[in-house]
Amino acid sequence: MVDTQNLMSREMDIDRPCAARIYDAFLGGSHNFGVERGFVERVEAALPGITETYRENRAFVRRTVEYLLAHGIRQFLDLGSGIPTIGHVHEIARRRTRDFRVLYVDNEPLTVAHSRPLLADEPRAAIIEADCRDPESVLRSPAATGLLDLDQPTAVLMSAMLHFVPDGDTPAALVERYRKAVVPGSHLAVSHITGDYDPGAAGTLESFYAETTDPLIARSPQWIDELFGDFEVLPPGTSYLTDWRPDPDQAAARPRYRILYGGLARKLG
Ligand SMILES: C[S@@+](CC[C@H](N)C(=O)[O-])C[C@H]1O[C@@H](n2cnc3c(N)ncnc32)[C@H](O)[C@@H]1O
Fold first, then answer.
1. Which positions, given as ranges, span the membrane (predicted)?
2. Domain CATH number, residue 184
3. CB-defined site of ligand 1, < 6 Å
């Protein structure tokens, strides 16, 4: 269990690449610095075509949110949101409905500072600077209680976030606390790096991220599967992200690096 007393506010560090801005740089965004753009160039040189893997993750988020909206979910708690640009949850939601709420949570101070102006004109979405390893602070924050009604079904999104939570911080127990905090009909979406199919690529990424503010840990598909606990895992089950409900007019992409794994599950009544 994480000692939340010791979860200090994260220091701002712009001398080393950070996960949020690396992701933004891979997606072609403008909220990143030279240190992240240089990192992206070096990773792409070591793993040609890896940029597509980052896009696969974002496409998984989009398909997940579209599925949830189509199935009546209107509240989203996006843990480890990064900078909500380039087709993020509130943008997907407002294409379908006026009735939605999104709370973004990230612990990287500059990410949150960059995100606030982007959300200034959207009263149905907000971002808070908080550490997801402290679920009670996240869920009881004024932003969460003001924006979300946790007595209503909520989608908890943990996309490309948990691989930044070290084993010592008991990530599986952490996910269980979020599972318990939401009512039946709620959903949990997870994507995570795995090294089981392509250990070379996953290991290379781990080595690169070791020099960032956010070291990364690949885990097994079985470990990722078990995060869903007693929730009902929805078809097609946990899978490589490109195999997870590909767009109907498209065959599943054939990823160069099969390192992204995840799925979506629903809490039963
Ligand atoms: C790669 S981005 C993922 C963005 C988005 N979830 C997606 O999948 O499109 C991972 C984000 O998780 C954040 N993060 C990592 N550990 C965190 C923690 N303990 N609490 C809150 N945010 C965290 C990082 O700052 C980063 O912005």
1. none
2. 3.40.50.150
3. 19-20, 23, 57-58, 61, 80-82, 105-108, 111, 131-133, 159-161, 164-165, 214
**For residue range 38-73, what is the model confidence (pLDDT) as tens digits?**
999 999 999 999 999 999 999 999 999 999 999 999
Using a pLDDT cut of 90, give the percent of the chain over it.
88
Which of the 8 DSSP states describes residue 158? E
Strand ranges, E, within the chain: 75-79, 101-106, 125-129, 155-159, 187-193, 232-233, 239-240, 260-266
Cβ-contact 267, 184 below 8 angstroms: yes
For residue 81, give its domain range.
15-266
Cα-to-centroid distance, 109 and ligand 1 (Å): 12
Q: What's the CA-to-centroid distance between 130 and ligand 1, angstroms? A: 11
State the pLDDT at residue 87: 82
Q: Whose CA is nearest to atom 7 of ligand 1?
A: 159
| Ligand 1 atom 12: residue of nearest CA | 80
* Domain membership flag for residue 94: yes
Atom 23 of ligand 1, residue of closest alpha carbon: 80
Of 238, 152, 148, 237, the closest CA to residue 191 belongs to 238
Query: What pLDDT, on the 0 to 100 scale, is given for residue 9?
Result: 66
